[in-house]
Amino acid sequence: MDGSSIDQSTTSEPISITPSPAKKLRRVGSGASVVIDAAAESGVEAESRKLPSSRFKGVVPQPNARWGAQIYEKHKRVWLGTFNDEEMAARTYDTAAHRFRGRDAVTNFNPLSEHHHDEIAFLNSHSKDEIVDMLRKHTYDEELEQSRCQSTRGPRSQGSEHLFEKEVTPSDVGKLNRLVIPKHHAERHFPLKGGSISIGVLLHLEDSGGKVWRFRYSYWNSSQSYVLTKGWSHFVKEKKLQAGDIISFRRSTGPDRQLYIDWHVMNSGPNDPIAPGRAQPAILRLFGVNVLEVSRNGGGDESFGFQNTDKKQRIIDSL
DNA sequence: CCATGTGTTGAT
DNA sequence: TCAACACATGGG
User: Which residue intervals are annotated with compositional bias (Low complexity) in the record (predicted)?
Assistant: First the structure.
């Protein structure tokens, strides 16, 4: 049921985007748009209050002569920020689409190809919320560039790819001492072979602090679900996991295929979609950055300053 | 203030 | 899912 396979003709030109700036429109102040071409003014009853549509997917006009980018997921809009350049907004949408919908998402410009394997890795190693945050703050290109520099720096850091994430439920962090792994994610990333289904296997997951966690992973016939059982409650306790928090799984791209588990607090929820001005800079950095370095910093990092205090405390506790 | 981003609705 | 449109609102 992969809905997005509207591959046009060839791989070279998926969508014909011919910038046709024939119209010279300038939008003014409070939502009005005005034709500045003097010749066109006469005779035309200027319906100038209407905003010009964008020729790009995921791009909407803003009253202040700028452009907004947005993408939809699960019937809800995810705002990707505002931009001066219409094309920049379009590229922003493309990036989000690639992260949300994969390699062959329908985009405004060229699809991600083998030439961009490093960008694909970068996208997959960050959560959707992280990517959205970069896009809204216009720091995506910068962070992508930084990740490229880091990866080529010595044999130190092994790359890893994002597998999937889950917003934990109350029962996941409750007394049942188990985590349900959504079936499609489980079968895609953690397949259980034949006899292992009933008895289960032992998974070793490393967290961002380098600590290795051992979980029993098995299939429960009674509930027809894949679960982490033994060991899971210890993780919940140490990380002070709460319902609504996000756990994400990654796997080393190296030969070791090391598994990683990380967590962060909910960014977008049913009620509060995305905190506008104050995203979660400090929290979001838990993934890509050396967390120990932050704690050694003597708390000098002021980016923690404006976060909800109990959430902050939980993060500090986990370091 | 006013740019931003949300509420909302109607199309595809 | 998507964009059009109105406008609340909160950050400067």
Answer: 9-21
